[in-house]
Structures are given as C-alpha cells and as structure tokens.
Design goal:
By secondary structure, the chain is of the alpha+beta class. 41% of the residues lie in helices and 15% in strands.
C-alpha cells in the first residue's frame, strides 16, 4: 500500500483492517516525510486560527465539491494529483480534508453519533450556540476598540475639530459591532430552531438520509491460478430465495476460541418485514475489503491509485441502477438487469466487470454487468480474469476473485446468500448485525456475526492424474476461513430427502477463531473439520500483481463491449486481436463460459506473431484446461472436441491424454517412454505438453526444468531430450515415492 494523503488519513482515523494498519505503521515509522505529514495533519486539525478556504476563490481546491468528491472517491483522475498537491501545500485545505475525514470516520464507528437529540440535548446545543455567539461578539468589540485606539492619532491630525453632537468614529464602530452581533445571534437562533425541527422528525423518516457513512476498501488479492467448478449439474444451479429484508440482528462479535464449540441459543427472532420502496431503492455504503491494490478496470475510473476506496463515502440516496458505471451499459447489458417489478438484491460496485447468466428468448446467454448495475433476486455470475468486481448485497460486500463463478440469492428471512460454484470470494460488512449465508460444496450455513473480520470462501477441484474426466468426478474441497477476527458459523444444510443435514465433526452453531477454517471434502461428504492455519492463504493476504499488459487488455475488453454492446461478440473479436495479451484474456474468459475453441487454438498456434511465449502458454493452459477437465463430463467433452477441431491434425487424443495426466500404472506401462519421445515431435504444442507432464511427474527442480525448452533451437532441444532419455533409462520418470 502506497503512502498517500488518503491512506494516511485512513491510518490516522483507524478505519483500515488490522493487517493494513500494521503495514502502514511500519511504512510511516520508516519514512521521515510521512512522519512530518502526519504531525502536520494532527497540528492543523487542532489549530483554531486556520480559516476555511474561501468559497469565492479560484482553483481546484476552492470548489467545496472537490473535498466531497475526494472523500467519496469520485474525483476525476486528472484532478486527483493536483488536489492532493494543494492539500500538501496548504494548511487550510489539509485541515478541511482531514477534519471531514475524521468526522465521517467517527460516524462510521459510532452509529449513536447520528441519533436524534432529546429535549435536554437540544437545550444544551442552543445554549452553547448562544455562549459562542456572545464570545464572538465580545471578541469583535474588543478588536474594534483596539483598532479605534490605533486610529485616534491619525483622526486628530486629519480632523482636529468636530461638530458638536456628532458621533465619534469609535462610537459608530461600536454601534456597528453590536448591530452585527445582534444579527449573528438572531441568525444562530433561527438555525437552532431549524436544527431542532430537523432533529425532531420521526426516527424512521430520517434514517436513510442520515445513515452514518462507512469505509470502503480494496479487496483481497487475486489468486494466481483459478479454482475449478464441481462436476455435473452442480455447475449450473444454486440455491434460490426471495429478496426480502435481512432478518434479526445478531449480538456483538464472538470471542476467539480454538475450536468450533456450541453457542448459546438465539433469542426469539422477529418476523422479517417487507422492505419499503425507499429501502429497496437506496444502496448501502460499501464496507472495506482486505487488500488495497485496485484491480484492472474496464474503463476510466475516478479513483486514487494505490489508495482508492480508503476514503469514507456517504451512502447514496438514488437507486443502484442509476449510478454512473465505468463502462456505459450497452443494450444487451440493459436487458440483463432486473425489470422494475422485480426486487433487487443489491448492486455491482468497486471496479471491474462481471459476467451475468440470463435467459434470452428461452436460451441461456451471457451479458456484461458494470459497476452500478442492479442485481436481481437470483444472479449467476462469473468474475473474468483481470477483474475484481464487488457486490453490495443488503449491506454485505462480496468480492469475487478472478476466475470465480458464484450464485447470489437471498434466504427466506432476507439474509443474502453466496454460493461459490468454483473459485474464491471474500465477504465482509461494517454493520455489527450483518449476516450472510454461505454455500460451498457440502458446507452450507450462515455467518451470523464477525463479518468485520472478514471471512473468505474457497472451493477447489482436484483431479487424480490419469482418471477419465468424462466418467469420474473431480475431488471437491471447500473451506470457510475466519481471516482477522472470529466469526459465528451456524450450519443450515438440507439433505436430498429434504431433511435437515448437519455435518459431523463440528457443532451446529459455534465460534470460529481467527486464522481457523472449516474444511469439507467430497471424499467424506458427511464430515466437517476445524483446521488451525499456520498462515493465511496467499490469495487472502498477498496483493495481486496486475501488470500493465493485463490492465491494458482489461481496458480493451471494456471498450470493445461498449462499442459492440455484446459480450460474446466482443470476446470473439478480441480473441483474434493482434495484441497477444488481448487474445489471452479473451480466450481465458471464453473458457470460463464453456467455450474452449479460442483457448485451444491459441495454445496450438505456431505461426509468427500468433505463437505464445512459454510463460504466456503456461499461464493460459493453467487457467483453462484444468478447469475444463474438472467441471464435469460435458466440459471435458467440449475440450476434447476443441483439440480435434483446433489442434494439429491427428494429435487430439495424444494432447487430451497429456492434458488429463497419467497414473503410475500408465507410466509403468509405457506412457513415460511416449512422453520422452514426444520431446522430438514436430508440433510445438505436443513438445510443450510433453515437457510439462515430465516436470510435473518427477517434480523437477528449477535447474532441471531449464534443460529442455520446447520452443528453443534444435540443437539445445536435442541435448535436453537426451538428458531426459537418460533419466528414463535410470527408471527416474516416476512420481516421488512411487515404486
């Protein structure tokens, strides 16, 4: 996280997660310039003699809307640097921004700060205003007297005599001061009565308008390799529910414990109520996420580099669909949004692009969802590679990591539910009463407290090498992780016969300590385990490395969608683009949608200007082929067909076999000799798959991996192939530990 004015303000006001706050502690301690700026911020905020910037002045920071736009994180890119430079150079502007940020942070931490005043509180407020106005009047009168005293000598020289009965300059100045003081008192009293009227309104009327703002933050980092989709029909369907308001609130976050233990039974829960029109239309503020590195965007975004979303944004009062998206929605995108008669779950926020599955004339189709788009009562979504979109669902922020497919619904009591079909997600909320349902494989339940933590969800698929993906299902592993603070997990699974199904090994409801996870595997579908983690997974704590090429490809995809209005047309056009990063992004995204032709064609390309470098080839293969093999029989069959249609002639079976891997028995039966022989194959894709399989089988060291390069010159290739033949003759082409 970079040291900027925004990150320093968030650090000073304690609105960052614990890990990010600790990171900034170290950076501020090691930077003399940062320490000086921090000391200056603390000094100017407490300095009463600093006046606010003039409203009639000129320039960027003289506009009062600039501070609001900066804190709301919607100031244009071309104005951000100039604005922060003005804040650094001017104590007045720095004090204004820091004071506003501190006030909003206080409101976010203490909801009671916006509670209506009682009669005694209103009286104290008016009395304080009167004392303040009287003190101001006294100071003004004293100032006038001093100025009059200084002007007496000059007055005597200029006018030695005065007409009898004429008022002296001092007396006239005193009258003017008392008149100004009386006008100020009258104005303050009028404002006090107006404030009393506003505060005295019914509580339910003002809550939406005066809701305390919350802190928005970046998300957890992107995983380097995608997770996979469970086999069979499970990849298409998820739980459904009605969109109603969330259920009863939950008490304070639980204390940390080592294992999941039974919790006290919940108090009686009131019946859920239907949301009012205003509540359904007004989006909630977005809480902070885990990481602070912004993802690639689909268009120009009004954000602060390496620090956006660390400002405190007030809740908008308009409907989510009316928000200005980073990519203007095309006609196909508009049709994907829920109709006006359907209840909405929330809206898309953050940066990036989401892919939504919907029905178009009776056929399933995919469309793009941009920030600001509304979410219907049931949404099947995919986060493409290169993007990190967020969802705001009933006040809960759900971040889908790249390569993730999830279904968003609501339970009968209005609790939002996220079902991770494959991939990873992070959920959090600044509301102490927030709840979220989670479904991942055999893990089905509700996080009833502790979402400020936050909590991470993952669902991975593992295949045993050599198994037939068209007949054997992949191994599913799911987990729910408490990241920074403890969470309360309540089981809520339903068996195939409709009865309540609870996993063995964990309590029906209990507390989960930080850095602890609930794990489930398909090999033991009725068992859950509590796992104490030595360290959090890298995808939770490590910021993603988004290079310039990947960001440019993401922006190119967003621009193409804006021009064509069709997601699939844009992806197919970009898959044939002259720039390799655009082709890789389009092919990997199409593979997430179940179309593997572009990915296989790119993996097999050998022509000049079309062939991938080895690193690019390995990245694309890891992002597309394992997922296709793990998603089930239909996806595996489509991948085989793609090898037949787009691969080298007559090599489809060989390529498909190397893609799925070989068992120990197959290696002993001759597959090892075939792999070593394939190192001399004339087709580049065959050589690449052969060396990939050999290195994966023997778990080759970095030095041994460099002995052979599939796209290298002929002589070095022959030397590398000869070394692998020597390993074969020694019987070393086998997995470690295999007989």
């Amino acid at each position: 996280m970079r040291l900027t004015v925004r990150t320093l303000l968030a650090w000073l006001d304690h609105v960052l997660p614990a890990d990010e706050h600790g990171e900034l502690d170290a950076k501020v301690a090691g930077s003399a310039a940062a320490q000086q700026l921090v000391d200056r911020i603390r000094r100017v905020v407490k300095q009463p003699t600093i006046s606010p910037p003039r409203l009639d002045g000129r320039g960027l920071a003289a506009d009062p809307n600039s501070v609001a736009e900066y804190l709301d994180n919607c100031l244009e890119h071309d104005r951000l640097e100039a604005f922060e430079r003005i804040c650094i150079e001017s104590d007045a502007h720095l004090a204004e921004v820091a004071a506003c940020h501190e006030i909003l942070a206080t409101l976010a931490r203490d909801p009671a700060a916006t509670a209506p005043l009682d009669a005694a509180g209103r009286r104290r407020l008016l009395e304080a205003m009167r004392h303040h106005s009287a003190a101001v009047s006294t100071d003004d009168g004293h100032h006038e007297q001093v100025m009059d005293a200084r002007q007496i000598p000059a007055t005597r020289e200029a006018a030695p005599t005065q007409p009898l009965g004429a008022a002296s300059p001092r007396r006239r100045a005193s009258r003017t001061a008392w008149g100004a003081a009386a006008a100020a008192v009258a104005l303050l009293v009028s404002l006090g009565f107006l404030l009393t009227e506003v505060i005295g309104r019914p509580r339910g009327v003002q809550r939406d308008a005066l809701a305390p703002p919350e802190v928005a933050g970046d998300s957890p980092p992107i995983a380097a390799a995608p997770a996979h989709e469970p086999p069979g029909a499970a990849v298409e369907d998820g739980p459904s529910g009605q969109a109603v308001e969330p259920g009863p609130t939950v008490v304070e976050s639980p204390p940390a414990t080592v294992a999941l233990v039974p919790a006290e039974p919940d108090p009686p829960k009131p019946e859920p109520t239907e949301p009012t029109e205003l509540e359904a239309a007004a989006p909630k503020p977005e809480p902070a996420a885990v990481a602070a590195v912004p993802p690639a965007s689909v268009g120009p975004q009004p954000s602060v580099p390496q620090g956006d979303a660390l400002a405190i944004a007030a809740a908008p009062v308009t409907a989510p669909a009316a928000a200005t998206p980073s990519v203007p929605p095309a006609p196909a995108q508009k049709s994907a949004a829920p109709s006006g008669g359907e209840a909405t779950l929330g809206f898309v926020t953050g940066e990036g692009l989401l892919i939504q599955r919907h029905t178009d004339q009776g056929h399933a189709a995919w469309a793009a969802l941009v920030p600001g788009a509304a979410l219907g009562p049931r949404e099947e979504l995919i986060a493409p590679f290169g993007f990190q979109p967020d969802l705001n669902v009933r006040g809960v922020t759900i971040r889908l990591l790249p390569g993730t497919r999830a279904t968003i619904t609501a339970d009968a009591d209005g609790t939002p539910r996220v079902e991770v079909v494959f991939g990873r997600a992070v959920v959090r909320s600044a509301r102490p009463d927030a709840r979220v349902g989670v479904t991942a494989g055999g893990l089905t339940g509700t996080i009833t407290a502790g979402l400020a933590g936050p909590a991470a969800i993952s669902l991975d698929l593992d295949r045993v090498p050599g198994t037939d993906p068209t007949t054997e299902a992949a191994r599913v592993r799911a987990s729910v992780i408490a990241v920074n603070g403890g969470i309360v997990w309540k089981q809520g699974g339903v068996a195939a016969d409709g009865s309540q199904r609870l996993l063995d090994g964990i309590a029906a409801e209990g507390m989960l300590d930080a850095r602890t996870s609930i794990a489930w595997e398909s090999v033991a579908p009725d068992l859950g385990r509590i796992v104490q983690l030595d360290a959090l997974p890298a995808w939770v704590v490590t910021a993603p490395q988004v290079d310039k090429l990947q960001r440019n490809a993401a922006e190119a995809l967003g621009a193409r969608i804006r021009d064509t209005g069709s997601l699939e047309q844009s992806l197919r056009e970009l898959a044939d683009d002259r720039r390799v990063e655009n082709r890789v992004l389009a092919a990997s995204t199409l593979a997430l949608l179940g179309d593997f032709d572009a990915a296989v064609e790119l993996l097999c390309a050998e022509a000049a200007g079309r062939r991938l470098e080895q690193r690019q080839w390995a990245t694309l293969e890891a992002a597309t082929v394992p997922l296709a093999l793990a998603r089930g029989a239909k996806a595996a069959a489509r991948l085989r067909t793609a090898f037949e249609d787009r691969g080298p002639h007559g090599k489809a079976e060989e390529l498909f076999a190397m893609a799925r891997g070989f068992s120990d028995a197959e290696l002993a039966a001759g597959a090892a000799e075939a792999l070593v022989a394939a190192l001399d194959d004339p087709d580049l894709v065959v050589r690449r798959y052969a060396i990939k399989c050999l290195c994966d089988i023997v778990q080759a060291s970095a030095a041994d991996r460099l002995r052979y390069r599939a796209d290298g010159l002929p002589d070095p290739r022959r030397e590398g192939a000869a070394w692998w033949r020597g390993q074969l003759q020694k019987g070393l082409i086998r997995r470690p530990g295999a007989a």
